[in-house]
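Thread: Newbie trying to understand structure tokens

Hi all, I'm a second-year student working on a class project, and my supervisor (Dr. K.) asked me to get a predicted structure for one chain before our next meeting. I've only ever worked with sequences, so writing a 3D structure as a token string is new to me. If someone could post the tokens and maybe explain what I'm looking at, I'd be very grateful. Here's the chain:
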Amino acid sequence: MGASDWRRFVEVPGLISRGCLGVLWILVRREGDGSTAGLSFPLTQLNFLCNIIHFMTPDVSVPQNGYTNLLNIWNTTKAIDKTKGDSLANLTYGFWHAGNTLDTFLDYYVRAKPEGYQKEAVARTEEGIKVFSDAVDVDPTGNPPSKLPTKAWWDDYGWWGVAFLKAYRLTNAGRYLQCVKNCWDFMDQGGRHQGDQPFEQDGTWNHYPGGAQNLITNSLFLNLSAQLYGLTKEQKYLDGANAQFQWFYHWFTKGALTPVLPGGKLVYPSCGLGVSVNDKSVPKDKGHYWTGDQGAVIGALSELLQIAGNVAPFKDDPADLASYLKDACNAIVLAVTSNDHMVYKDTGILYEPEWIDPNGAVGKGVLMRYLGAWLQSQGTLNSRKGFIIANALKATTTPAGEEYFPFSWAIPGVEISGGGYDLIKQLTQQCAGQDAYNAYLLVA
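---
Reply by user tm_fold:
Sure, no problem. This is what the structure looks like when written as tokens:
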């Protein structure tokens, strides 16, 4: 090029936000008088150059791994006496969040495979067993107790059971499978076979009396039943899965799985409402959705799909159960990645418009957990790769001056406003963000 042509490098910062160099160096035409005033560089050429650099340079924007912070707060809260609200063994908040957090740890170990991950998985699980024992005064690794423990809510055992299942699959330790069986027994004996309303006898209560047959509790029982039958072939687990699915199918056909715009379907009513799925809530509470419900239902239906050939036919069953389950899961996936009850405006980022206490805080993480697992099982991860990465980036971007991941991934500054204790709030936020990171590991 000539002396008066493209011969000067000019620093142009801030033009590229992701996938390119932090500072872009471009050739700029030098005017005849030797100055750089009157810069003449067509925007179309600049955009073209940006695109070239994007594909020539490594992606430098990746989600943050918050495992160390999650482990630190786990270690802090598990050491607190169970009479204190910030204790993992406290039944008000900590107990079920401890089970959910153990699940998050195990996903991380399996996917990231850090050095010594199998040893770490055993360590976290054994710590979880101690928390469980402290909370309900029952060793989950032992034989079923003669008297059913009634301290915790029945759905709490579902969170623990699903986590213990992952520990068993990772380690093949029989004591962990016994934990799962005990959790299932507690749910079956305490949460089921209650009530005298039509179809409620097929559902699972989160507490009785005074509780509800909500989506989370019933999803967890179906999830456990299907997985335990797949592992053991014991008839009682298949019976549990059959009866529980009848509850789901009945209420789904009544409208609890509803079409939404711009496409797909969502399940309701939100567990945050504290109501049963029944003839009152289905017509009344449409429009109240929770991210955690969507994820848990995907998880339950996907596990039932694995044993669909064994599920006994009922008069009102769908003609093709496997196709029905796949279609339902895919419909929920479509909705949670596009509907404005799930993603904030046009950002594509998950948010919670209603339930923002420490319980609601984990919903987005639960959704990311089961969304990623479902897409992986179907070989369709690439179809939602952009969504997973975008949410993982937002979920794991620590606000300035803060140590833990934010509650809101979509709206800066929105914080948990209801109930709970400071450490448990931090645990739930960090756990949800780590779930998003774990989903990212599937597409990284």
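A couple of things are worth pointing out once you decode it. The two ends are 41 Å apart (CA to CA). Confidence is low (pLDDT under 50) at residues 1-60. Feel free to ask follow-ups in this thread.
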